[in-house]
Amino acid sequence: MHKLFLIFILSGTYIFANINVIVSILPQQTFLKAIGGDKVHITLMVQPGNSPHTYEPKPSQMKSVSNADLYLAIDVEFEDVWLPKFQNLNTKMQVIDIAEGVPKISMHTSCTHGVNSHEKKLHDTHAHQHEGNDPHIWTAPHNVKIIAQNIYEALIKVDAKNKAYYLDNLKIFLQDIERTHIEIEKILFSLKGSRTFMVFHPSWGYFAKAYDLKQVAVEVEGKSPTPKVLIRIMKEAREEKIHAIFTQPEFSDASAKIIAKELHIPVLKVSPLAPNWSENLLNIAKAIAGQK
């Protein structure tokens, strides 16, 4: 009797449902784990240390795509090239865009480049090179709430039997997101004067918009600033009393190091693709506020 009961429990769909889900980037994996728990088997496409601008999947990842039930897209550049190929490989795989409903901002408006009116022509050239929407939507907590809701809707579409399980996890995760947001506000409340921070690659536009900050980018589209623009950026950094420059492990930071050395401020390596999403944003807020 006990053996039959155990077999019944082990074979129950609710207990051991296992959806094969593909995600593009690490933050998605973090969000999906929070909501999907042990009901999902996750395959990550863009591996740590790589850029979603240029990543190419490995053969083992293509095999995972062929067995996937669901692909959660988030509108990064990697997907423009590879999603059609994935869909051709696995026609039964559902593709759901979890960026749906997130208000987008353009790369042109999400940052400035430390230029004055006499350098407007050069600035316009930089901006033109980086047209389109900023893809880093997960850097603002409010956006992550929308993403989380979309993940929940996607999961119950393919696994309705576990709706209650996913809903419980969603509620817990939404509370975690709200706590992160409140903590960031507390940290930035201590910020006096300038609300400007400097980045090497303009990846924090949504974070800046959410908390009434301004990011000044050292480079755009992988292009380092000219000496003239570099001088202007350093002048602005002095005037704004910037506490640090944020760079990403995925990009060169030579220009940022020149600025940091000149201004005696630290270069902090922090990636928007880091899996520890909440801790990442809290550390950035502390650095902007000049907290240790």
Structure commentary:
The protein has 292 residues and is α/β, with parallel strands linked by helices. It contains 13 helices and 8 strands. The strands form 2 sheets. A 4-stranded parallel sheet has the order 2-1-3-4, with helices on both faces. Strands 6-5-7-8 form a 4-stranded parallel sheet. Helix 9 (163-189) runs parallel beside helix 13. It is globular. The model is unreliable at 1-15 and 114-130 (pLDDT under 50).
Characterize the overall form.
Answer: globular
In the predicted model, the low-confidence regions spanning at least 5 consecutive residues are: 1-15, 114-130
The CATH topology label of the largest domain is Rossmann fold
Number of extended strands: 8
Count of alpha and pi helical runs: 13
What number is the mean pLDDT? 83
Question: How much helix is in the residues?
Answer: 40-55%
CATH superfamily of the largest domain: Nitrogenase molybdenum iron protein domain
